[in-house]
Structures are given as structure tokens and as C-alpha cells.
Amino acid sequence: MPFRLSHDEPDFEGRFGAFLDTARAADADVDEAAAGIIADVRARGLAAVLDLTRRFDRFGADENTLRISEAEIDAAIAGIGAPEREALELAAGRIRAYHTRQAPADALWTDEAGATLGWRWRPVESAGLYVPGGLASYPSSVLMNAIPARVAGVSRLVVAAPTPDGRANPLVLLAARLAGVDEIWRVGGAQAIAALAYGAGPIRPVDKITGPGNAWVAAAKRRVFGHVGIDMIAGPSEILVIADRDNDPDWVALDLLSQAEHDESAQAILVTDDPGFADAVAAAVERRLETLARRTIAGASWRAHGALIVARDLDHAVELANRVAPEHLEICAADAEGLAERIRHAGAIFLGAHTPEAIGDYVGGPNHVLPTARSARFSSGLSVLDFMKRTTLARMSPGALRAIGPAAEVLARAEGLEAHGLSVRSRLDAMNE
Amino acid sequence: MPFRLSHDEPDFEGRFGAFLDTARAADADVDEAAAGIIADVRARGLAAVLDLTRRFDRFGADENTLRISEAEIDAAIAGIGAPEREALELAAGRIRAYHTRQAPADALWTDEAGATLGWRWRPVESAGLYVPGGLASYPSSVLMNAIPARVAGVSRLVVAAPTPDGRANPLVLLAARLAGVDEIWRVGGAQAIAALAYGAGPIRPVDKITGPGNAWVAAAKRRVFGHVGIDMIAGPSEILVIADRDNDPDWVALDLLSQAEHDESAQAILVTDDPGFADAVAAAVERRLETLARRTIAGASWRAHGALIVARDLDHAVELANRVAPEHLEICAADAEGLAERIRHAGAIFLGAHTPEAIGDYVGGPNHVLPTARSARFSSGLSVLDFMKRTTLARMSPGALRAIGPAAEVLARAEGLEAHGLSVRSRLDAMNE
Question: What residue range is the signal peptide (chains A, B) (predicted)?
């Protein structure tokens, strides 16, 4: 049964707090195994990558077949039907339009002291995008990672994707082509992350690695962080729906199940101000669970991690949502915008009953790579900024150095850094000569 | 002797590449030790923090003395002289003015499909700033970390700083007060990071941790990353100076030594187009090393990691600088701005002969927390954005859902996510009824 709690029950606070603290990540501790794989790839390069690919993906690639050729891509995508192709093109166009607006502005100004200051954004030169194999091999994720990189101006964009038994997902290949990916390598797991970070034979290293992955991939990303940039460490994902009684319980049930069907450790939470509506949604979820293709996964997620919470009112619902800091937040109520205004922590907000979270997964435009497991408290979804970096600029006129240099000298002396102080003093003395 | 290389020597490329690949980080592998300390603090909370503080800092704090009281701060800063106080105030004002310009803009628009899209920035609620004890206890770093957090709107700003033998640095306390820090705790090392991430007795957990630290602090930050946000993993820092012959060799020598005096693993590199100028700078460095207070550290850094590189011309110098991706880049040449335009990777650029890097360490305005060890290829200096996060917004009108919903449905089906598709379909069907 999903967790159920109402504001008028005894110890609501304690029980809500305990619910929040329940860990959902059941990741195996594979940190040492990942470290071993990284060391192997650094030591043996391509040979290690080929060995591990044979072992984990049952695929005997060699130096020439490790990269998926343009001809292979052509052949694979030729069989894709028009509806799928058009849907991916529509999604790519909308994602590109949204992310193009994120391009940051440079700045340069001269202040009253005569100091010219500013900053300038430049793209990361090369980026590697990890695409999981198996169940979670999603073409939509390729678009969501690759398009912001291209909009940022990344010049070399690489995909690493395991191809279990040598089979690649044609829609993933099409998404990579639509997004302008330059190279696709048939390699997965920690060995893919190691190859992207340090290079391996024909796989040249990249500067930044993004994309979701299993526990090995996550552990490897944590390990290579610092040598290259990484996006975030993705945890189990969640949705929180705030809905009042003026909603269709079946729509809300399907939105909850959209999250639950991803993964047994996913979490779907309804917060409503009406106990009768909570009952109706619970019933609708059970009805849908009877026929849903992924009912085993969705049912396990719903029973283990699902929640129906009855808040005092919609303001209370907003407060509870802030404490959850959900990856996805739907607000289905008359004044959705007014309630959203007071949300401080959420990866993405979907406003109104006609904005199911699934729209955001595919065609809305905003990124679907979002902070999970309460990390919306301190991080943001993937964006163009993740593929750019800022250089600060400063030029002192002689007058500016005269005005603020002495303070730098005082602070350098206070910190015991004599050369710092002298580097300012030698210039000031020359000006006074 | 510092490394010396000229463009006209045989195998310039190979030798420059080998120089780039030379690792300078000699951090002990303290990952397991840090993990043990984090586990101890999570299990025993305050008791563990007090035990570790007694052991590592020789300071027997209890629950009441672990936090530095306002009265203690008042007493400590009363003895600070006017020049130091005024210099810190000038620095704080300039840093605040620069960072205030970084406040990001929200956006909201409606596109031709009828989808209202956008994003919104909100501050992280609480942030913890680590301030090292001992040699590297720098008041300027307190300003550089705390002011962007305050400008971002962080509501609770906490400092953790070891106080070896119970002694706190008065200038650090003054900087914390000027920057508006709310709490200062006498705790250092991995135990400080654990307490900030998970809480320990009176130390409530924070959402984001920033600030420099030794190998234990770095390992602990890497471990808690994901549960809380962190800034970057700082490595040994570096400066690269591009200077032509029309510069004072002594000024450039002092700028190189400003970096070298920080730390034996720091790196100072001159790239010039004139071999005679390289000789003159080398001689000036040696002269200054005779008298510099920190000549042991600066000399060790210069001999082990320093470099004098003679480029073909200033364009070649720019190309080499891009390959180094230095934390600090000074450009002392007539057309500094023109050369800077082609720099793709650098944490901060200092333009012209009157902008010694030391100005940027203290009073320039831009942040001095910058990407080290070539990570300017993929990351930026600390900024207001590090203390904010972005929530994306989406609202579909019924018409927008009709226009783009079917594509989402197609993609959901292609990815085998039936509930995703049904969440769109159920709404479309209701509209058609």
C-alpha cells in the first residue's frame, strides 16, 4: 500500500519527516569495482575497453567496429516510421528553441575607480554523453543531453552507449543524428566513463561527461569528477502532484504512474486538500494498474514508495512540496501560477491540468534531465550553462591601481603573502617616480 | 631549475605535451579515512565532532563553546587596526558590487503552439563555507565565498573553521561579519564537512558546501556530493603570464612568485615571444627569491613546476595558454584585449601591465575561487549562480496539448512507457468528446 497521511492525524510532522528521510536508493556499492575498471582502462587503454565490452555486453568489437559508422546509422534509421521520425523532429525543434534562450550574456563595464571588469562565456570544447543500454535506452534523453551541448557551441560531441549483443536502438541513433552528435561508440558502464575521461585508443578524451546511468556509471562519474566535468549523480526520480478536487482522478493517477513505471525505486506523491479526492486517485491508480504494460514495475514503485497526503489546504500543500523538493512538480489547481510562485525547490513545474509531466519528458522544450532525490534544494536541471564556462575579466588603469592597490597590499601583508603585496607595490612605486 | 622550452627546439610539441601532463597533485589518498570520519559523525553526531576536534585541533570544545559567540567575535576583531579593517571593507564592497551583476534573469514566454514556457531562479536556502585553519586561513577567501551566497539570497550562511589550539584568526572573523555570515563553528577537516552535510548536534545541515581545504576536506566533499551540493574539488593552482619584451621583468617575476609562494605544488608559467625577456624574468625571479619571506615555498614551487616558454609569437602564446587552461592568466602586451578574445580556457584574465593577479585575489571584484589544474576547460569560478538553482516552468493550453501531445504519445510508445502516453491520450480524448 502507498504511504497515506493526513494533516489531522496525530504526529503528522514526525511521520512526514520520517517519510522524507526514507532512502529509496538501493544502489549496490560498486565504487571499488568502478575504480578497478577505470584503472584498467587507464593502464591498458583500448584493449581493456574491448575486453570489458566483450564481457559485459557480449559484443566482440575491435578497433574498427567499436565506433558505429555513418553507414550503420543510415541502415538502422532507414526502418524508422514517419510518425516516430516526425515526433523526434518536433521534439528536437522544441528543445532547441527552449535552450537557445538560455544562452548567457557576456558583460563588461568600467567602474568609478577606473577598473574595467566583466566576464565572458565560452563553450566546453568536447562533451561525452552516456546513453544507457537496455530498458532505459531513451532517444528522448539523447536529445535532452546533446541539444544543449550543441546550442552551447561544443565542437566535438560524442555518445557512448552499450550495445548488448551488438544491437543498437535505431531511435537512439536517429536522435543522435538529429542532435548533431559527431561520434557514437559502442561502449557502456564504467569503462565508457573511463574512456571518455582519459581516452582509449581511437576514443579521444572529452572535457565534460553527462547523461544517466546505472550504479557503475554513477560511481565512475564520481571518480573522474575533477579530471573532467560531470553533470549530476542521478538518483531515483520522483513526481509530486498538487491537485484539488476539481481534477479528473484518472488523469492524476496516470501522471503518478508515469513516474512509477520508470523504475521500482521511483516515487509518486499526491498532495491534495481533499480526502475524497485522494481516495478517488488511489482507486484510479489501482484500476490502471490492472492493465498497464509495466504494471509490475509501476505497482512495486507505487506500493513501496507511493504516497497520498491530505494537506490542510493548498498553502500547506505548497509547504510540503518545498520539503520534498521534487524533481517533477505538477500543480493542478485554479491558481496554479500563484501557488508555484511560492515553490522554492523543484526541478520542473508543470502548471494546470493540461500539462502532464509526460509532455515535459518529450516535447515541452525544457530539459527532462532534472535534479532527483531532493537535490533540487541545491541544483538545477541540465542546461546550456552546463556546457559553457565563464572567464572573468579585469583591467586596472594606472589610476585604478592607485585607488585600490594599497588595500590589496594591506590584505596581502595580513595574509603573509609578501610577493602578492610586492607585485602591487612595485607598480605603485614606478608610478610615483 | 624551472622548465624551459623554446618553439624552435626539436620536438617542441612532444615536450610541451609532456609538461602539460605532469601531475602536480601529491595528495595523500585519504579517501577511506575521510569515509570513516563521515560515518562516525553520521553515527555519533556531536560526540564524534567533539572527539575529532580534540584530537586534530587539540581543542576541547563542548556543545556550548563549539560555536564562536558574537561576544568572542567582538573581542577578537576589536584589536584589528584601521588599515586592515578598511581594506577588508573596500574588498567586500567591490566583491559585492561585481557579484550583484551576476544575478540571473527569470524568463517566461508563450510560443506559437500556445505553450507557456520559462524558468525561474531561486536561492539555495542554506550554505556552509569551509575555511581552512593554519597557513591557508585567508580572510579574503571568506569574502569570496560568503558574499556571492548573500547576494544570491541564501538565508542561512554558516562557516566551519578549525581553530588549532582554540585560536581563531581575527581577520577571518571580521571578514565573516562583513559578509553577513550567521554562524561560525570551530570544526575542521572531514568532520566539518560531515557535520555540514548531515548535521551534528547544534550544527544543522546545509544544502550546499563551498570553500577550499586539504586532502581530507576534498575527499569528504567528494563523498557527500549528491546529498548536498559542493563547489569544486580544488587542486594545485597556477598562473600563466603572457608578456612581450615591453614589460618590466621584475613586475612579471613578482606576479609569477605570487602564485609560487602559495604552495610548493603551485605552478607559475611565463610565455613570451622574446628569449631575452625570458632570461631577464628568470634572473629577476632568482633575485627576488633571495629575500622573499616565503622563499622556501616559492623557490620549491618555481624549481619543480615553474616554466619559461618562448613562443613563436604572441598568437602562438595564446594557443599554448589555451592548452594549459590556467586558473589565472595575465596578458601583458599592447593588444591584451585582442589576444584575450582568442583565449578559450582560463579561470580569470588580467589585462595589461597594471593588473597584477594579486589585485584579483583581494580587491578587483571578480571571485578568486577559480578552476585549478586545467579544469577551466569545463568549469568556472565561484559565482552567484553557485548559490542558486533554476526551476523550469511549463503550462500547456488545451490547444498546445492538441498540437504537440500526439508527438509525445508516439515517443512514449516508442520508449515502451505506456502510462506516459496514456496521460496525454486521456486528456486529448476528453477534449474531443
Answer: none
